[in-house]
Amino acid sequence: MTASCPTAVSLVCHHFLMNRTDRLYALREELRRAGSGGRTAERLAESFGVSARTIKRDISTLQHGGFPVWARPGPGGGYVVDKAATLPPINFTSAEVAGLAAAVAAHRGQPFDGYARAALVKVLSVMDTPARERATVINDRVWIDHTEPPGDVRTRHAIDRGLHEQRVLVVDYLDRDDKQTKRRIDPIALARTAGQWYLVGHCRTREAIRWFRLDRMTSARLTTEPSAAIPVEDIGTPPATAKAITDF
């Protein structure tokens, strides 16, 4: 890897898709983390991948909800949170947070990527400044070469929510013959094997459980229809090398 390669691990939450409720929470935590330095609307907009107008509207919503954030006028101004609203430092070591940041960065574009980044922002927001700075130094020495495109963020986010909220998904899918098909899927599980991520679900088009490669999904739309309650055991017996993420 040459010196021109960008460092792959960043301790700032950049350009991941989240719904407005999640964004409001993450925005509140980011402002708490900023402390007396505050954050401008432009910087927040860049961090969350939205417009400055959207950030200002979100700030207004937080203010009306009683969150003590105020606009500091003048050069270098921005949005600042009252000190009383900040949380005490959390007991994470800099090495532990560096490990979390590296794992999140390596998981870019994969299932629940956006939620992982939001969780990392929350952890960072309640760390003391010296520990956060040490974590940054460590992560400057961790490089990850992302050679594969991360895929469509909106599609992945819809799949994440479909599994999390147990709702039917409508998916545009390229089959093994590269033919475009539309499927209605009851999501059951996400699985990674042979270097690929799959959504395992009951395909209502085929009336059978199928494994859908995420990189073959060209779009996914979350419906309001609850998905069928299908036990994970109905998928079949996993290989001996397979483990659920709870078994780490």
Structure description:
- The protein is about 35% helix and about 20% strand.
- By secondary structure, it is α+β, with helices and mostly antiparallel strands.
- It has a five-stranded antiparallel sheet, with helices on one face. The chain has a two-stranded antiparallel ribbon with strand order 1-2.
- Strand 4 and strand 5 form a beta hairpin.
- Helix 1 (about 20-35) packs parallel to helix 5 (about 115-125).
- The longest helix is centred in the N-terminal third of the chain and has 15 residues, at about 20-35.
- The two termini are about 30 Å apart.
Which tags fit this structure?
248 residues, alpha+beta, five-stranded antiparallel β-sheet, two-stranded antiparallel sheet, 7 strands, 22% strand, disordered N terminus
Short summary of the structure?
This protein has 248 residues and is an alpha+beta fold. The chain is built from seven helices and seven strands; from the N terminus they run H-H-H-E-E-H-H-H-H-E-E-E-E-E.
The number of helices is 7
Radius of gyration: 21 Å
Oligomer: single chain
Distance between the termini: 30 Å
Biggest β-sheet: count, sense, barrel? 5 strands, antiparallel
Describe how the helices and strands are arranged.
Blueprint: H1 20-34, H2 41-48, H3 52-64, E1 69-72, E2 78-81, H4 94-106, H5 113-125, H6 129-139, H7 153-165, E3 167-174, E4 180-193, E5 196-203, E6 208-213, E7 217-226
Antiparallel strand pairs: 1-2, 3-4, 3-7, 4-5, 5-6
Helix pairs in contact: 1-5, 2-3, 4-5, 4-6
